[in-house]
Amino acid sequence: xxxxxxxxxxxxxxxxxxxxxxxxxxxxxxxxxxxxxxxxxxxxxxxxxxxxxxxxxxxxxxxxxxxxxxxxxxxxxxxxxxxxxxxxxxxxxxxxxxxxxxxxxxxxxxxxxxxxxxxxxxxxxxxxxxxxxxxxxxxxxxxxxxxxxxxxxxxxxxxxxxxxxxxxxxxxxxxxxxxxxxxxxxxxxxxxxxxxxxxxxxxxxxxxxxxxxxxxxxxxxxxxxxxxxxxxxxxxxxxxxxxxxxxxxxxxxxxxxxxxxxxxxxxxxxxxxxxxxxxxxxxxxx
Length: 286
What we know:
By secondary structure, this protein is of the alpha/beta class. The chain has a single domain (2-281), classed as Metallo-beta-lactamase, Chain A (4-Layer Sandwich), CATH 3.60.15. It has helices at 22-30, 56-62, 78-81, 86-91, 108-116, 120-129, 219-222, 226-236, 254-266, and strands at 2-7, 40-43, 48-50, 70-72, 102-107, 133-138, 144-146, 149-155, 162-168, 171-175, 194-198, 241-244, 271-273, 278-281. The longest helix has 13 residues, at 254-266. The chain is globular and about 55 Å long.
C-alpha cells in the first residue's frame, strides 16, 4: 500500500503569515519540504483523500494527483474541511462535457457536526446537487469497501473525531488525522504496517529541549502532548509510524525531522517526522 503525506502541517501554516524567524523564513525561501501545508493524506492504491484543508488544491497539484475517487473526513474542524471547494475545481466541467464525481464519506457523528458548524454539510449538499460529489453517511460500526480495500472509521477518545483503518489481506494502515488527546491504543491495532498520527503539541522542542509553548497556555490542557504520542507508538508497535499535524508553534523543521527520525530509529522506534510529499510504501522494508 502506498500512502502520501500531502500536507504535514496543522492548523497553523508554515510559513505563518506575518511571522519572521529562522523557521518561517527558511520555509518561505526554500518551499516544500520545509514548507508545511494543512493536514491531508492520500492513499494512492484507490485514489482516496483524507480531509481537505484550505490549501489542499496546491498539495494535489504539487503531487500531480489528477483524480480523487473518494474522500473520507475525520471531523469538522476548519483546518480539515475548509478546502472542500477543491471538488468544484477538480470535478465541475464548465467547458462542456461530463463532470467528474467524487464519493465523499462521512461518519454519522461527523455529519451531525458538519450540519452545525461552518456550513460544511450544506456546501457538500450543494456540490452533490451539481453532480460533482456523492455523499455517503457511514453508520456506526460499519465499513466501506473500495477496490477490495476495507476502510473502517474508528472513533477516538474525543467522540467527534475518527481515525480510519485500511485493510486488505494481511496489510493494515491506520490514519489518525488529529485529536488523539485521551486516546488509549487498542490491542487490536498492535502490529500495524503503518500508523499515521498527529505529533501532539511540543511544549518543548523535541530536538533542542527549548520551551516552545508557555506553561500556562490552555492548549497544553486540551491537546495531546508529544511525549504521550511517543508512548502510544511504543504501545502500538507498528512497523512504521509517520508523524503529521506539525504546527508552526512546534518549530520542527524538515531538517530537524530528519535528525529526530534517525535518533528515534536508533532507539528502536520506527518513526518518521512527516513532510509534504513523503511517500510510504508498505511493500518496502523500513
